[in-house]
Specification:
Organism: Pseudonocardia charpentierae
Pfam family, one: Phage_T4_gp19
Radius of gyration: 20 Å
Protein name: Phage tail protein
Number of strands: 10
Order of helices and strands: EEEEEEHEEEE
Largest sheet: 8 strands, antiparallel
Low-confidence stretches: none
CATH architecture: Roll
Structural class: mainly beta
InterPro entries: CHP02241 (IPR011747), Phage_T4_Gp19 (IPR010667)
Mean pLDDT: 89
Number of domains: 1
Number of helices: 1
Distance between the termini: 29 Å
Strand content: over 45%
CATH class: Mainly Beta
Oligomer: single chain
CATH topology: Pnp Oxidase, Chain A
Shape: elongated
C-alpha cells in the first residue's frame, strides 16, 4: 500500500487541556447517537413517530504500548487529587509521515479509567496501557 494512504499507519496524538499525553495506536468510541423518543398517535396506525430528543456521546478509549509518555498519564491522574476539572481535548489522527489526517476537538472531557499492562512472564506480550475518557460533545475544528 502507498505511504500516503490516510488509512495506513494511523496514530493518534492526544492533548487534554494543557497536557500533551503523547501518541496512541488505537482510538475507539469516537461517535455520537441521536436519542429518539417514540410516540404513537391515536387513529394513525401506519407509523410510530420518531422524535429526536438529545445527543449521546460514547466514551473514547485510547491504547498504546508502554513508553516514556506513560509518565504523562500518571502525572495527569495525580494532578486530580484535589478535584477533577472538565477540560477540552484534541485528538489528531496522523498518517505515517506524521501529517494530520483528521482532528476532533472535544468539550467537557473527564477521565473515566486508566488500565495498565498485565505482566506475565509466561506469556510475553507487548505491555500496553489504555485510558478511557468521557466528554460532552464535539467542538468546531
Amino acid at each position: 500500500m502507498a505511504d500516503d494512504d490516510p488509512a495506513v499507519s494511523v496514530c493518534f496524538s492526544v492533548t487534554i487541556g494543557d497536557k500533551e499525553l503523547g501518541t496512541f495506536i488505537s482510538c475507539e468510541g469516537l461517535g455520537v447517537e441521536v436519542v429518539l423518543e417514540q410516540r404513537e398517535e391515536g387513529g394513525f396506525n401506519s407509523q410510530v413517530w420518531q422524535l429526536p430528543t438529545r445527543l449521546k456521546y460514547t466514551n473514547i478509549k485510547l491504547s498504546r504500548p508502554l513508553g516514556p509518555d506513560t509518565k504523562k498519564i500518571t502525572e495527569w491522574f495525580a494532578s486530580m487529587t484535589t478535584g477533577v476539572k472538565r477540560r477540552t481535548a484534541t485528538i489528531i489522527a496522523r498518517n505515517a509521515r506524521n501529517e494530520p489526517v483528521a482532528t476532533w476537538n472535544l468539550s467537557g472531557v473527564v477521565p473515566v479509567r486508566w488500565t495498565g499492562p498485565s505482566l506475565n512472564v509466561e506469556s510475553p506480550k507487548v505491555a500496553t496501557e489504555t485510558i478511557e475518557i468521557a466528554h460532552h460533545g464535539f467542538l468546531p475544528a
